[in-house]
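Q: Structure tokens for this one, please.
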Amino acid sequence: MIQPIRILQIVRPSQGGIRSHLRLLCRELLHFGHTIHIVAPLGFRLEDIPGSISGEISIHSASILSKPNVISDLRAALKIARIAKEVDVMHAHGVRAAWIGAMACQLCAKPLVFTAHNLCPPPRRDFSSKLIRWALHQCDEVIGVSNAVITSLRSYVSDGSNFRVIANGVDLQEIDAMIDVNSSWTQLGMKFEPQSTMIIAAAGRLEPEKGYDYLLHAASLIHPMYPEVTFLIMGDGSEKNGLSGLIPGYGLTQNVLMPGRMRNIPALFAKSQLVVVPSITEGQGITALEAMAARRCVVASDTGGLSETIEDGVTGVLTPPGDPHAMADAIVRLITNDELRDRMGKSGRLRVERYYTSRMMTVDTESVYQSAISKA
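A: Here is the predicted structure, written as tokens:
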């Protein structure tokens, strides 16, 4: 039996995938009997962790900013080093957290694990690349959420023998409990009931790299042929106003719903006919996993970890990133073929059950903690 481990999770400012990952990882680690501390930016709320484990995790605030700041980063590292005296291993999520964790590691001599959730840009002769390279050299173990992420990291080091892939997972029981086919849209948090019976859904941060402008372009191509189709785009971010401004010009005022950030994403996917993940770049794509878990086929960009998560032609369709015409063609092909959509949705669920559960993710991460501790 594995001995309980005291783990310090270090989190940079984040939304979306990293928060989902941390939420499920902490839940499973507590189930296994481990002790969790979290160091996070100011404003990180305990409510972000499910109520089932509230009070069982120690939350510590630190001035971890989105961009490097020598004074703030040093203060955060000093605080982390003090807290780390009471733990067995530190686990940093994201490059910013890895950099600060690496500084703390120099002060407290604790093993450091780093999970890269996103693709790293090619190294350049700039300060940011130097920080990434130095941080990677300080880590005892490095996790990438996909092979694509690991490949992007290898260009920073000469030896990547401590690199390994551990994909994100989802909690299938939680998702199944959330889905109720008899629930109305308003019961699931929507302020209104969509008028259409054909809903194409998407969810995520409304940021440039997520490609929602291409989805709207694709919607404008589909609309003249299938004016009854409604596109449901859930999420918030810096691109929200810009995307909203595109809708009237595309003639989609009555066909695009943007309700903001929603809580019951898998349940809303389950009430939709199809899910689209139009990202230009993606580390893995938890949204795709949630859609597959909800038995919905996915149209996704053939980029980064999405190319590994989606089995093209089996659980969904991959299209070239940034190509609204190919995206529109794939969507039309699926909305006009109920049998194909249903078959791909069922295949997607089986794929998640086999490769992408939160329990699998946690067991593999637990073994990485043990490996890092044994090296210390």
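A few notes: The chain is about 40% helix and 15% strand. The radius of gyration is 21 Å.
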